[in-house]
Amino acid sequence: MSMTDSSNPHGVPRLGSAGSLDRLPAGVARPRYDRSRLRPAIVHLGLGAFFRAHGAAYTEDVLAADATGSLDWGILGASLQRPDQRDRLAPQDGYYTLIERRPEGPEARVVGCLLGVLVAPEDPAGLVAQMAAPSTRIVSLTVTEKGYCHDPATGLLKADHPDVKHDLEHPGMPKTAPGFIVAALEARFKAGQAPFTVLTCDNLPGNGALVARLVHDMAALRDDRLAAWIAAEGAFPSTMVDRIVPAATDADIALAERLTGFYDAAPVAHEPFRQWVIEDRFAAAGRPAWESAGAQLVSDVAPFEHMKLRLLNGAHSAIAYLGVLAGLGTVREAVADPALRAFIEALWREEIVPAVPPPPGMDLGAYTAELMERFANPAIAHKTIQIAMDGSQKLPQRLLATVRERRRQGAPIGRIALVIAAWMHYLAGRDDNGGGYEIRDPMAAELMALATAGGGPIDTVRAFLDVEAIFGGDLAGDAVFASAIAGHLALLRQAGVKAAIGAAA
Ligand code: CS2
């Protein structure tokens, strides 16, 4: 393997090159196990920064602590769209640097459990074969909300999604995550083998049951017997995943080099905190002892998931839309603004916390105080524009679930309504200083058209609430909700975020 890389003009030796692990500075943790004996047992779909800083980090800890040295749990990653990750990771033999960004300074660690990266569009049948191989015991996923090809309001498969149609017509050459899972499970079924566990690690409500239903429904459109086998034999545990992992930047590459002395084209920077709550319901082939790395194996993930999606992610989306409009580029800048911070704290205290039953042993006041500290971490630059993307797929579980709960109780929803108004206003594409920004959302064209159609605030709000894929059939008819949003939208249009937050205080 060459010591340098064309994208590394300084000639710094590359991570993963011969002898590099032995030459890391003493303070940098690295694999101490015999990596040549590590066998792949997990195929991970959607190899982004998040999984490499979360599920892979837990797995690396298990390997590091594995006294018996069975080395059973190597990971093969798969990218469902682009070759970038493979192109960065293959020249360094899958090794990469994790940078823990703590307020008091960064710490680096080299991870070795990623054994290779497949690029699905280059060889979809090859990925299906790898997933179907008896050695694969778990197929895990972080494909983001839209990667499930479901209707966000109902959780049902979008049978008219172009990629879903493609997968039904070309089942051996899928494009979608559910399509790959169905194809690989079908191969197992036909070979008379047991299924692998499907472990979803995306921020979706009841994510295990959701992916089980999507996979089942896609299978049923092709073969009833396959669908029945999946329903009877399949294992789809739910999970709650948590770690703040901003998209990687060139500054992370430079920092990895400074901390390790090696060039790494694919480092991942993350916050210190991590949490993984996993429903302990795996197929017979088992799972790594993730609990030894601090994961919580439980019988019911739902309370943890509600807490995290509604409090962390709900606040994140609030900060994202208000922040983008106010010209605040990162979460930490946004929560450094006293008025915005007070708004988020009141949103939690007055509207969201009262609608979230605390998981066993959890105090939600302490949980939100810790969230605010995490958001304020001076070492993390998490872009508001990044969190703002895909709002159509995120709002239902992050904010609308709370709205429904509160409306059932006849409780106020004024602050959440401001966040929804901010999302609608953000979709018009101009911040409070008249600046533009990029809007990324699978429904962007439709939603931006609604945001810019003209008409008064209540007309805009009604048109939005009619979008059933987001608001379901029920919220469109809620006049109280509609007029609360419209009041905020009027103020946002006339006077901007500061005034709207001031009025909501
Ligand atoms: C964020 C999440 O981008 C987003 O939508 O809210 O990625 C968030 O950082 C993680 O869920 C934290 O666990």
Which terms summarize this structure?
11 strands; binds D-mannonic acid; globular; 3-stranded mixed sheet; 505 residues; N-(1-d-carboxylethyl)-l-norvaline Dehydrogenase, domain 2; 2 domains; Rossmann fold; 5-stranded parallel sheet; alpha/beta; single chain
What features would you describe in this structure?
It contains 20 helices and eleven strands. 46% of the residues lie in helices and 11% in strands. The chain has helices at 49-53, 55-65, 84-89, 124-132, 162-169, 177-190, 207-220, 224-233, 250-260, 302-326, 331-336, 338-352, 364-376, 384-388, 391-408, 414-426, 444-451, 457-465, 468-471, 479-504, and strands at residues 40-45, 74-79, 96-102, 105-111, 114-119, 138-141, 197-200, 239-242, 268-270, 275-279, 296-298. The chain is globular and about 65 Å long. With 505 residues, it is of the alpha/beta class. The strands form three sheets. A five-stranded parallel sheet has the order 5-2-1-6-7. Strands 4-3-9 form a three-stranded mixed sheet, sandwiched between helices. D-mannonic acid binds at residues 203, 242-244, 312-313, 316, 386-387, 394.
